[in-house]
Amino acid sequence: MPLLILLRHGQSQWNLENRFTGWVDIDLSPQGEEEARAAGELLKDVPIDYVFTSALKRAIRTADIALAAAGKYDIPTERSEKLNERHYGDLQGLNKDDIGRQYGEAQLKIWRRSYDVPPPNGESLKDTQERCIPYYTSTIEPKLREGKNVLIAAHGNSLRAIVMYLERLTPEQILEVNIPTGIPAVYELDNNLNIQTKRYLAEFRDAF
After folding, report:
1. pLDDT digits (tens, 9 = 90+) for 129-185
2. What pairs with residue 197 in β-bridges?
3. Which residues are within 8 A (CB) of 80 and not within 5 positions of it... i.e. 6 or more apart?
4. pTM given for the model
């Protein structure tokens, strides 16, 4: 049965600074690099046949660092903007605490976690899902149907879109889902790509 491994990139410099990042191509922080290495240590015994990442360096470098730490080289890899973080529009670069004080914590949570309410001039999770899931079903699922094990290194919201699809979550349920940085989630799928088991390879910690 195929394995699907989801890995949110390690802490980025703007995660550290508590700023909305979106499509801004910010690199990993030193802690993020360590998180990627730690993820690789956890993946040493997990066979991986294909790797997919977003087009943003924090996801690309997380995959590269993790695979090197796992001793896995020359794995076919594809990068796509379809797996990018959702675009935060006018919020990109702004501090989340400042936005919470300006607009209220409830509005901040809606912009960060809701399904279909976008930030000003940005994408909602629904928008992200509408670009991410067709790519997943047309490009990634065929590898899984061949019995291949796939690693996706991406972002909190593009991975939430995939989790919502995989786990058949409602918009209300996805509101409460947070993806931890640098902790591989392994789904064991059957031949019809239904979930048999799901486990994190380390203790769940709060995401940034």
Report:
1. 999 999 999 999 999 999 999 999 999 999 999 999 999 999 889 888 888 899 999
2. 188
3. 52, 53, 54, 55, 135, 139
4. 0.93
Cβ(84)–Cβ(162) under 8 Å?
A: no
- The active-site residue, picked from 35, 85, 123, 155, is 85
pLDDT at 204 over 80: no
CA-to-CA distance for 162 and 165, rounded, in angstroms?
5
Asked if 133 contacts 46 with a C-beta cutoff of 8 angstroms, the reply is no
Q: Which residue is listed with tokens 């903007």?
A: 81
**How far is the C-alpha of 136 from the C-alpha of 122, rounded, in Å?**
22
| 81 tagged catalytic | no
* Domains delineated in the chain: 3-183 (3.40.50.1240)
Is residue 9 annotated as part of the catalytic site, yes or no? yes
